[in-house]
Amino acid sequence: MRELTLSEVETLLKEGVAYAQSVGRASTVAVVDFGGHLRGVLRPEKGRFANPPIAEKKAWTSAALQRPTSLVRELMLPGAFGYGLQHTDNRFCIVAGGFPIYDEDGDLIGAIGASGGSIEEDCECCLVGMRKLGFQTDFVDPLASK
Q1: How many CB atoms within 10 Å of residue 100?
Q2: Which of 5, 17, 28, 104 is the S-S candidate for 43 at Cβ 3.0 to 4.6 Å?
Q3: Are 125 and 17 in contact (CB under 8 A)?
Q4: pTM above 0.85, yes or no
């Protein structure tokens, strides 16, 4: 299994922040490796101090659960198999704006998260760099067919 390169991490961060700035936001973007360890975070001028830890939590959650954070909320509702998981560790985030990153063989190599805009803007901050680098961006909930 390969790791995200420094160049890829930089591209993901810069593309995400550039997109945010293009829509008038000062969003922060964070990238973690496959184990959830921070590889990089970029907070632009006027970015809120709360955004970096939120962006990192979104990325960490996507790496830990191997799915976009938009699909995590359903796992943690009462009656779902993951109910209560969000209370076991202060790192889980159920807010959209985090995505896993897979290599060409389908192996998890990292995740990205963004915070500072609307849900849609945070998602696009992540996806713009992923698209540029050719990473998968069409996610399906693996539990949906069960």
Answers
A1: 25
A2: 28
A3: yes
A4: yes
pLDDT attached to residue 146: 40
CB 124: neighbour CB atoms within 10 A? 20
In a 10 Å sphere around its CB, with 0-12 CB exposed, 13-18 middle and 19+ buried, how is residue 7 labelled?
exposed
Distance CA 98, CA 100 (A): 7
* Predicted local distance difference test score (pLDDT) of residue 142: 52
- E strand or H helix at 75, and its extent? helix 72-75
Mean pLDDT by groups of 10 residues along the chain of 146 residues: 96 98 98 98 97 98 94 86 81 93 95 97 97 89 47
Q: From CA 102, how far away is CA 2, in angstroms rounded?
A: 10
CATH numbers and ranges of domains, the chain:
6-133 (3.30.450.150)
